[in-house]
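User: Please run a holo structure prediction.
Assistant: Happy to. Please share the sequence and the ligand.
User: Here you go; the ligand is flavin-adenine dinucleotide.
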Amino acid sequence: MPKSYSITLDINRYDPDTRLSWIQTYQVEASGILRFVDVLRRINDEQDPTLAWSSSCEHAQCGSCGIILNGKPLLSCELLVKDAVGQFNTHRFKLRPLTIAPVLRDLVVDLEKAYDRVHKTKPYLIKPVPYQPEGDEYRISPKTLEIYSEATRCINCFCCATACISGYHHFLGPNVTLANMVRLMDPRERAKKERTDILYREDGVYRCHTSKACSFVCPKDIDVSHFLALGKEGRF
Amino acid sequence: MGEALTVDSTLRCDVLIIGAGGAGLRAAAQISEQRPGTKIIALTKVFSPQKSHTTTAQGGMAAVDPKDPVDRSIFHMFDTWKGSDCSADQNVIKKVCEIGWEEVVWLERHGMHFSRTEEGRIAKRPFGGHMLNFGETKALRACYEADRTGKGIMDAVWAESLKYGVKFMGQCIATEILFKEGRCIGAIIFRYPEGRFLAILAKATIIATGGNTKMYLVSSNCRGNTGDGLVLALNAGLPVMDLEAVQFHPTGMVGPGILASEALRGEGAILRNKDEEPFMEHYAPTAKDLAPRDLISRAIIKEIREGRGLFHEGHDAHHVWLDLRHLPKEVHEKKIQEVCSFFKRFVGVDPERDLCPVTPTAHYQMGGIPTNEFGEVQNDTQGIVPGLFACGEVAAASLHGLNRLGTNSLLELITMGRITGERVIEYLKDATDPEEPSPDDHHMVFHQFSTYLHAQGREKYAQIRDKLRDLMMEKVGIFRTENSLLEAIEELRELKERATHIPQGTTSLRANQDLWQVWELNNLITVSMVIAQGALSRKESRGAHFREDYPERRDEFNYHTFAYMPKFGEVTLEKRPVDMSMFEAKGGHYELFDYIKREY
Ligand SMILES: Cc1cc2nc3c(=O)[nH]c(=O)nc-3n(C[C@H](O)[C@H](O)[C@H](O)COP(=O)(O)OP(=O)(O)OC[C@H]3O[C@@H](n4cnc5c(N)ncnc54)[C@H](O)[C@@H]3O)c2cc1C
Ligand code: SF4
Ligand code: SF4
Ligand code: FES
């Protein structure tokens, strides 16, 4: 049988009706191969149905389940208990909601609001190149695609934005800037001027101090700061 | 609490889209582009449309480029017909296959990052059941973006809808559709953050709520795939079609059931039993590991039943192996990067070095809200409901019949999304603004929610959820019998009753996850009942529906099952004929579109 662990979770709670916040401690006996979303579900099932948290795909593809665990923003659906114990070298975990949007209840933050910023960067092709004369797809060589395809893997989980040392008030944030970089590097986008205006605006890429915290926490292993550095250098 | 539940505001729009996934937003984009200025509201349960379940689709989208030197869309039509075990509708097959490539180009033109060939063209890979020359050899037909094709599609339609000013509303559920004199005029919505109800009135409403296989113990679906859209229709007295056709994908990762895409086998991965024997050779000598999903799922269960499977102690589950060790490093790193990382993270095996444990997982609902070939919802086998449309996985036109081929679903979302959008544009031409419903209208959801909020039972949500999942997996799963189905129906009746007594941890309406989940659980039980009843009445085996007591396909069941269930448990069934227009037109190769044998 796989190893079982006795873990202690200190979870930040918030009740929107009374506006009270507190920290609640739960003891859980969990098999090492459970994910943190499974552990939270277990708490709902066995101890406390009121503890709110969020998830959707539960396999690291949608970015709905970010939390801060012992100081590190991560996806609760992909962290296994045994890996957490190994990685953080403890059996006690502090779980807090992400800091980039208002808390709705407990671990659930209003990511819908956080998305307003993603919308600002216009993730679509503002002005696409004209149709191919043959009417089929625009040609892009695998070499060109490879330069930016890593950046297209971003799932907007906002872990990087939570970790970013430049803060969230004066900076659009790493993921939002990354989305702009994708289109700047995309040969099908013609509105480069509008894009560079967004990139270099007051709360744009120059707010980044290249600390690389974003790359360090990104659950999709995207080297976010690399793309931001390209942005600063105007290499796209 | 204690105060009465009410609708406290009303919004108006031209088009309400319930379900902002791939299908819903492809429709939104079509309407926005072709009819600028249309006011569209698109709802989703998750935070943003980008987080809809389409984003998890991995393998690809099928489409035949008309300039392809060897592939032809007639082959694709044939494969879809054969794959459906002769139960898909040929008018829909023809239409969808014909415009598939246009839609791939549309996605590419709207910014999707398809993988490319050396010449810079969209790359294609083989997929199960897709063949050249009417079943001869495997075809390169699945257009893909690495192993995150769904994400590419979702990002493209989401961003395009955003560009045109479609209003997104996240974290909400549509709980009831509204009608006035037979015409659909919108829906009642419940918002999670504030716990409030609002009415959205619309000239046209599209249901595109996606899949529903969360009633199975092992499922590849997201948390919110609870069949809400089907229940909206059933509660309104409308029929649903072919729900007994639930697809089990053969390769779910042991444990949570996360999907290990067919693309892996497309790239050359091989299924092996406990003796490491490549067992698919015995079941499908030609197609082998790329045989259709239902066939492979049954083969895996057979291997396990006959003692050639393995047992995973940690997850307490039987499984077989998927072998990826012989694939080139380049393939691991570039073409199947996400799935390999899932194996590493969730199962703790490295596909480059280790065998990967897999087991069938409930994956896709072929049936759905019946529509005609334009996405208009049917109210019986002849008529349609004015103002109401449906597309995507929740709908059944039906492209898949009782079994779908891999990569045909993404194709369906996008093509049927566009077609439905076009039909909505037509409808809007003379559609009037709906009148305000009366403030005294009593909405079903108020009664439901008050019951849930004040229930005093002892049995917890989790007990009923787990019971449902075990029961459906065991008795209404890959193999079914009359006895297992009758037992399941009895147990579902009981569960439904028990579910009304689940106690709530709080009576607050704000961000009340427990309340929301109990509502979803009720939907799952409702849909399960229809699945079981449909399966009971279909005394044959066809596509994904397999009856051990009737293991052959039978001509007397050459029809679609229409089911109504206005009151829980009281199911009425009707038959909708299968459209055979390609066969009847007597054009080239028409004889292949007859009721043919399905062998691979
Ligand atoms: C893991 C996985 C991999 C797959 N891979 C492939 C593949 O490679 N190729 C292929 O062809 N198919 C694939 N499929 C199938 C395909 O992805 C799905 O059928 C398809 O994405 C469904 O799209 P949709 O637009 O109908 O629904 P979804 O994308 O699920 O969107 C439904 C939307 O409706 C919302 N919603 C639901 N209920 C309500 C409600 N009550 N009120 C308001 N909103 C609501 C949801 O929040 C969501 O926004 C895969 C499926 C899975 C699960
Ligand atoms: S860049 Fe990485 S961490 Fe940041 S939002 Fe995207 S996926 Fe999440
Ligand atoms: S590198 Fe820039 S964007 Fe990334 S965390 Fe540091 S300051 Fe923030
Ligand atoms: S739930 Fe989708 S990323 Fe965690």
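The longest strand of chain B covers residues 7-18.
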